[in-house]
Design goal:
The chain is α/β, with parallel strands linked by helices. It has 3 domains: 3-281, Alpha-Beta Barrel (TIM Barrel); 326-386; 394-509, Double Stranded RNA Binding Domain, CATH 3.30.160. Helix content is 43%, strand content 19%. The chain has helices at residues 3-6, 15-19, 29-42, 56-68, 82-92, 108-115, 119-136, 152-165, 181-194, 214-223, 245-254, 256-259, 270-281, 302-310, 338-347, 354-370, 376-388, 432-444, 488-510; strands spanning 10-13, 46-50, 73-79, 98-105, 140-145, 169-174, 202-207, 228-231, 394-402, 409-417, 422-429, 448-457, 466-474, 477-485. It binds 3-methyl-2-oxobutanoic acid and zinc ion (ZN). Residues 18, 173, 175, 206, 208 line the site of zinc ion.
């Protein structure tokens, strides 16, 4: 291995598996494909596409990503059972570069209370799992779940056994976000010192953020020799989330001398990828989020602004353009042509095909008729709508609302279905949003429960656009929708229709098919 190679840290993205496990972040198969393609463009080394044994939908999503996405290794997760491993392999085998990832908990608390297994049994089952996976695939990762709370000596014994059994990557998870940078450094140093043959495999780190230390703990593991970091876009994931990809990548890039390590990430693709995942999961990026938040490169105080004007490096350790934030003061309006629009879209980091560009430009013109000036936030929102559009079957033909202080509001909605049905429905409610959503609910006749409704502004000015984000429960499943408009009632209605369209699509996908490929 050349000196250069030993500095290379692989980025293993688990947005589609661990990230998607976080409440309210579930994605459809097509959305997962979009994210997988964006991750490939971003330059991640490994995409963990899902957990095929979890459901038929997961199997299909992994299979489609494996079939269609070229470049990164495509990985499928499995417990250490023959059934899980075979199912994971049946989903991922078609990939250009497949990987199987098997896991088994090793900590005393999991052994006693979850698995009811003794130490020797854990080692036996882990080894059997790795051997079965190796029977299918040359690239096998093993994770001792809850490693950070496992007795160090026993962790070493498990890792030794699975390395001997043929695992090619060993991932050490801090499953519950409990460890600290110093402690994890010691864990990795211990494993590197004690396990024979560890230098022949890739040592990986996987951290959760329960105490807000996922990125710091991952970086500490890199300093101790980890050469793969598992992370998610926007840090989404179980509970408080996972190590945020954009943060760990920019820390490694900005403090390269400290870490002596580098990734293969095209950092200018970070911001558009983070925005895409935010739009598809309905999880807004907090304003003060490191690297990609709206305030990450904003300077309010006079002293800072003065310094910035003299030299940007006085208060900026990264350049906004390095993470793909190419904000400009250029404002587009109804006289802007297709060329200026296309250039702005490209500068903002989005790649649209000809059809998508046509649709985005049509929407841009319609919006420019209603809104004097269009800022970057407006253009981003519009492009993301095109990129994540669910495309029917229901569309809104018209919406009329009436609201008077102190009285119930009323709404009339006119909807059309792609099968030709047209419905007009009126309802009253506690405010125009409630009235309009009730009218749609009556028109469609689905048992829906609105769990969350949020509105935020996506740009500035008096005629700023509002983005409505909502979460709805239907038949025990949670669905999300989002939409943007200068009229926030209309944004709410369009977001609600997006949810209804998702429900129809997922019901259609769940209808029994003859060849689903899942046992
Ligand atoms: O957090 C965890 O332990 C995991 C494993 C399956 C790697 O996600
Ligand atoms: Zn995890």
């Amino acid at each position: 291995m050349s000196a250069d190679d030993s500095a290379r840290v692989l980025i293993f993205d688990t947005t589609l598996r661990d990230g998607e496990q976080s409440p309210g972040c579930s994605m459809s198969r097509d959305e997962k494909l979009r994210v997988a393609r964006a991750l490939a463009e971003l330059g991640v080394d490994v995409i963990e596409a899902g957990f095929p044994a979890a459901s038929a939908g997961d199997w299909e999503a992994v299979h489609e990503v494996a079939r269609q996405v070229r470049g990164p290794v495509i990985c499928a997760l499995a417990r250490c059972s023959a059934d899980d491993i075979d199912k994971a392999w049946s989903a991922v085998a078609v990939a250009e570069r497949p990987r199987l990832h098997v896991f088994l908990a090793t900590s005393a608390i999991h052994r006693e209370h979850k698995l009811n297994m003794a130490r020797e049994e854990i080692i036996r089952v882990a080894v059997e799992g790795v051997r079965r996976a190796r029977g299918h695939c040359a690239d096998v990762e093993f994770s001792p779940e809850d490693a950070s709370r496992t007795e160090l000596e026993f962790l070493g014994a498990v890792v030794q056994a699975v390395v001997d059994a043929g695992a090619t990557t060993i991932n050490i998870p801090d499953t519950v976000g409990y460890t600290t940078p110093q402690e994890f450094h010691e864990t990795f140093s211990y494993l590197r010192a004690q396990v024979r043959g560890i230098d022949r495999i890739t040592l990986s780190v996987h951290c959760h953020d329960d105490l807000g230390m996922a990125v710091a703990n991952s970086l500490s593991a890199v300093r101790a020799g980890a050469r793969q970091v598992e992370c998610t876009i926007n840090g989404i994931g179980e509970r408080a989330g996972n190590c945020a990809l954009e943060e760990v990548v920019m820390a490694l890039a900005t403090r390269a001398a400290q870490f002596g390590a580098r990734t293969g990430i095209h950092t200018q693709r970070l911001y558009p990828t983070c925005r895409l995942v935010s739009a598809l999961t309905g999880m807004p990026i907090p304003r003060n989020k490191a690297v990609t938040g709206e305030n990450a490169f904003a300077h309010e105080s006079g002293i800072h602004q003065h310094g910035m004007l003299r030299h940007a490096a006085t208060y900026e350790i990264m350049r906004p353009q390095d993470v793909g934030l190419t904000r400009s003061h250029l404002v587009l309006g109804k006289h802007s042509g297709r060329h200026a629009f296309r250039e702005r879209v490209r500068e903002l980091g989005f790649e649209l095909d000809a059809g998508e560009l046509d649709e985005a430009f049509t929407r841009f013109k319609a919006l420019a008729d209603r809104k004097k000036e269009l800022f970057d936030g407006d253009i981003e929102a519009l492009v993301l709508q095109v990129e994540s559009g669910t495309g029917g079957p229901w569309t809104l033909v018209s919406l009329t609302t009436e609201a008077t202080t102190g009285a119930d509001a009323s709404a009339v909605v006119h909807l059309r279905h792609s099968d030709g049905r047209a419905i007009e429905q009126a309802a009253s409610g506690d405010g125009p949003v409630d009235a309009a959503l009730t009218a749609i609910e009556h028109a469609i006749g689905l048992p829906l429960r609105l769990d969350k409704f949020e509105v935020r502004s996506v740009s500035g000015g008096e005629d700023a656009q509002g983005e409505a984000l909502l979460t709805v429960e239907c038949e025990g499943r949670s669905y999300r929708g989002s939409s943007v408009s200068t009229n926030i009632v209309e944004a709410g209605v369009l977001a609600f229709l997006e949810v209804i369209n998702r429900i129809e699509q997922s019901r259609a996908a769940r209808r029994p098919r003859s060849a689903a490929g899942v046992a």
